[in-house]
Amino acid sequence: LRRLLRKIRQLNFVVFQETELDFPGANLIAFDYREAGRIAARHLISCGQRRLGAIVPGPLNPAELVSNGGMDIGVNRMLEGFSEVLADAGIDPRTLEILHSPLYHDSPTEFHNRLEKFCRNGRGGIFAAGDSYLPSVYRTAHTCKARIGEDLHLIGLYNTGWGAILYPELTSICIREHEIGKAAAECILNHAENEEIILKPYLIKRQT
After folding, report:
1. pTM for the whole thing?
2. 3-class SS at 127?
């Protein structure tokens, strides 16, 4: 892209894994990761949970960072927002248990063992930075006899089809994909340059 930059009339990045990109004049369309973290923490605390965990991708290795063209900061911003709400509620943010997903970090066995330990240790709340992680949480909770929506409260991110399929139905955070697509199209039609459009996610409260 850098080699072709003089020939490109307009460059738009629609970002779902928030990064720091250095492309002067490019438009950036994304959702507010920090606010997503705040929403998740507020929901779990409102359910009466003070023992909390977060399933997030692990840090990218240096080679992946170079190939992605920027520094991966989305997860950090999400956890910062989560920690802000914990601190305001009088909960030590250092007690948040980070469960790195097996996709980038832990092996599937290590991830399952840590998740099972969390579910067996009494009441708690889990924020999963991606609804696709939640089916395994449901299975593990069932094995550990943890009642979802009572002993264990869950909230996901992206509001995929899993939300209405899982039982009990999954509370999730919508990142406004429709508006992201609309904003990208408007940038193109309006010949925009150097615009940063950050959309606020919102809670879809179901049963977890």
Report:
1. 0.86
2. strand
